[in-house]
Amino acid sequence: MKKILVPTLIAAAIGAMASAAQAQTAPAAPESTLSYNVGVVTDYRYRGISQTRLQPTLQGGADYADKSGFYVGAWASGIQWIKDTGTTVGVGGIKGGLELDLYAGYKGAVGDVAYDVGFLRYQYQGNNL
Hints:
The protein is α+β, with helices and mostly antiparallel strands.
C-alpha cells in the first residue's frame, strides 16, 4: 500500500506547486478592453425575418469596456427593407440601407445580486419616422 500512496502524494504535491506558481505569474486584469468584429453574412435575419432580402451583407461592431463596469459600443449591418432610404434602384431593389445599434451602460454586483443598467438605440439610415 505504501507503493501506491507515495506516487499519489508526489503527484499531488507537484500539482499543488504548479498551480501555486501559475497563480503568482497570472497577469493583472486590464483597466479596459477594446474589441471589434467584422464579417460577411449570407442573410441577416431578425426573429426569423430576412433584413437583407435573402442577400449577403457586411456587418461589424466595436465595444469598449472599463474595469469599473462602464461599457459602450456600436454595431452596424446592411439592410434592404426600409422603403424610404431614398436610394431605390429599379422596381424592388432598395440599396444603401444601414442599421446602426448604439449602446452604453454600467454593470456590477451588490452582494450576490448582479445588475446591468443600460441604454440601447436602433437607428436606420434614411428612415424618416
